Amino acid sequence: MPDNNSGWVCQASAPFPSLKDNRADADRMLDALKPILKSDRITCDLSLIKRFPEQLRQWSYQARCVCIKDNEKWDLIGVKETSDPRPFLGVAIDVGTTRMAIDLIELESGRVIAETVLDNPQIAIGPDILERIHFSGQNNGLKMLNQLVVNELNAAISGICEQAGFFREDVFLLAVAGNTAMTHLFLGLSPQWVIREPYIPAVNRPGISKASELGLFVNENARIFVFPNVGSYFGGDLISGILFSGMFEKEAISMLVDVGTNAEVALGNRDWLVACAGAAGPALEGGMSPIGMTAKPGVIDEITIDPETRQFHLRTIGHQPPIGICGSGMIDLAAQLFLSGMIDFRGKLIKSRSGGRLKEKDGMRRLVIVKSEESGTRAELAISQADLDSLIRSKAAMYTILETITRYVGISFADISKFYVAGAFGSLIRPRSAISIGMIPDLPDEKFEALGNSSLKGAALALTSRAAYDRIEGIRSRVTYLELNVNQEFMNRFSAAKFLPHTDPNLFPSVKRVH
Questions:
Q1: What is the distance between the alpha carbons of residues 189 and 477, in angstroms, rounded to a whole number?
Q2: How confident is the model at residue 286 (pLDDT cuts 50, 70, 90)?
Q3: Is the same domain home to 157 and 298?
Q4: What is the pLDDT of residues 406-461, one digit of tens each?
Q5: Which of 193, 202, 327, 476: CA 20 to 30 A from 512?
Q6: What is the DSSP string of 448-490?
Q7: In this predicted model, what pLDDT tens digit does every residue of 361-370 receive, in sequence order?
């Protein structure tokens, strides 16, 4: 077991009652916890107190306790006999717009016991978060969206516990991170004013609640911590990512980019933090093309094109026959088409360079990536000019977001010591490809680091480290949020970024194209 002061589980030992020490059983246990937790403000749920008279005497007034800090007070929410082998469990949840990820964690050791990823069931209402927000304003719309997520999480938590050989009643703590809108829908709060000027959430600090109050079927005393958000498009998922990256503790300046439905960006160090978010995600995730898919077996995630022969070399996840393309594959494709001279600086397909791959239907050019006989779907996979145009707009938005936030604080990209890329997108993306199309700054390879699902990993940290949990509000309070919706400079720079790699090629000196 780790040091008692590091996590939420500790061992308490109280003296037996006597005529000289006639404190109540509950007071006896809470007094034993005070020096351990370094607090005089500790409460205990009535359901636990009901069992104290019999349990504590059987256990010789020694118990393993799980507690949680709620603002300036502590709650004792679970006790077990010291010899009980069953652990206290925690559940970390990343509530994404498209997918939800869950880690089942042993609170005492911090070990991840099991994990799962599932589609967000709200997609049935609308794949886009704006559709869901509008739907939430209809009769019972908010309740329906809330229940879809809660029911899916209940099933997933029950399943992951059973898979690991435990019961859902063994779960005492949960931590949830998501963007502002998804956090509202998870909590059953109206997100209507998040998308309307002046973009005001219902709550920024949801804090700690009883899991049962949110409809989650875990231990009856379980508590759930929901990461705070900063602004309408800066949610708890980015706060969680900042926590996991550690950028807020470093002297050097770092940038964290998490590409999902929106591109969320944080910039700063131990002295200051600035953040913003903007709509750049769907096309970069492959979501704006009919052949675009999230990463799974058979999806193209890497493409190279021979600059001389213009022969395509594809890699699919699991090395299965290709069925679609994910965001990293789409960025690879655009970069390779540009570098091999098959599209021009505007992203337009060049007929003379495309050979037999270029087709035209209903006045729209399409480039065949995979012939039908080589496809896992038995239908050809092709990207249209409209798909490329959408990708160019998204990459321009992405670069402009990064450029706007750096200029806002008066630094250049060269001042950034570490460029963190988060999410599944960040794990698969090849920085050189993103640089080649002008999506991210032209920095040395060693400055880029993929974090994986930093939102989920930050939530896991909050479940296993008191120190990490205590830093969350400090991170939030230090963040200056830059609202791009009303930023005129953003719109001006966006036009300049809608070329490959940029209207100013000096910004991308490493990009060498075949002419």
A1: 22
A2: low
A3: no
A4: 999 999 999 999 999 997 666 778 999 999 999 999 999 999 999 999 999 999 99
A5: 327
A6: EEEEESHHHHHHHHHHH-HHHHHHHHHHHHHEEE--GGG-HHH
A7: 888 999 999 9
Beta strand pairing call for 479-481 and 273-278: parallel
Phi, psi of 332 (to 5 degrees): -55, -45
Dist CA 402 CA 442 (whole Å): 12
**180 near 262, Cβ under 8 Å?**
no
Residue at token pair 């929106």:
262
Which of 205, 226, 247 lies at the terminal end of a domain, its last residue? 226
Q: What is the dihedral of CA 177, 279, 258, 460, to 10 degrees?
A: 10
DSSP 43-104: EE-HHHHTTHHHHHHHTTTEEEEEEEEETTEEEEEEEE-TT--PPPEEEEEEE-SSEEEEEE
Average pLDDT estimate for 358-381: 91
Q: In what order do the strands lie in the sheet with 171-178?
A: 112-119, 99-106, 89-95, 171-178, 223-226, 207-210
Least confident of 5-19, 47-61, 168-182: 5-19
Phi then psi for residue 63, to 5 deg, are: -155, 150
Q: How confident is the model at residue 1 (pLDDT cuts 50, 70, 90)?
A: very low
What does pTM read for this prediction? 0.91
Angle between helices 327-339 and 385-408 in degrees, nearest 10: 100
- C-alpha–C-alpha distance, residues 264 and 273, integer Å: 13
Alpha carbon 177 to its chain centroid, in Å, reads: 7
> Both 315 and 433 in a single domain?
yes
Asked whether residue 4 is domain-assigned, the answer is no
Amino acid at 394: S
State whether 98 and 245 are in the same domain: no
CB-based contact 396:405 (threshold 8 Å): no
Residues in contact with 41: Cβ distance below 8 Å, sequence separation at least 6, in sequence order: 72, 73, 74
Q: Give the separation between CA 427 and CA 449, rounded to whole angstroms.
A: 9
Q: Given this model, what pLDDT does residue 418 score?
A: 97
User: Among 398, 255, 402, which residue's Cα sits nearest to residue 330?
Assistant: 398
In the block, which residue shows the tokens 């949020």? 481
**Are 210 and 259 members of one domain?**
no
Residues 213 and 239 in one domain: no
Angle at 67 between CA 47 and CA 249, to 5 degrees: 155
Q: Which two tokens stand for residue 153?
A: 């999480």
Residue 458: both structure tokens together: 């930050």
- Total domains in the fold of the chain: 3
Confirm if 95 and 42 have CB atoms less than 8 A apart: no
Sign of CA dihedral 281, 282, 283, 286: positive
